[in-house]
Amino acid sequence: MSSQTQFRDRDLLAVIGDEDSITGLLLAGIGHINDKQRKNFLVVDSKTQVSAIESAFEEFTERSDIAILLINQHIAEKIRPTVDKYQQAFPALLEIPSKDHPYDPSKDSILKRVQKLFGE
């Protein structure tokens, strides 16, 4: 299978985020439930266990239909070792801010990797 064919079917965004972030993105039209009844999003609240977040992260990064995985940065902090270990090109991983937690570039694992490449 050529790399062109391999990435052609990646047409979904996946999101792991707080209720406000997920609601906004669902209203924007990213919600999808596939034929196996698997969603492309996980709503995380104070009761959500870290193991559930890690398992959603693993599922989303292994799916072949997801091009980009968005995760609220404060949620990524809860599974930071798993996020830091992830190095695949697809799905691309982006840490995003939430309403109550602003973006902190010093915590973003992807940005740290880019800075290391450029010797900063």
Describe what this molecule looks like in 3D.
The chain is of the alpha/beta class and 120 residues long. The protein has a single domain, classed as 3-Layer(aba) Sandwich (Rossmann fold). The chain contains 6 helices and 4 strands. The chain has a 4-stranded parallel β-sheet, sandwiched between helices. Strand 1, helix 2 and strand 2 form a beta-alpha-beta unit. The protein is globular and about 45 Å long. The mean pLDDT is 90.
The SSE string, one letter per element, is HEHEHEHHEH
Q: Which oligomeric form is depicted?
A: single chain
Number of strands: 4
Radius of gyration: 15 Å
Widest sheet: strand order? 2-1-3-4
- Low-confidence segments, given as residue ranges, are none
CATH class: Alpha Beta
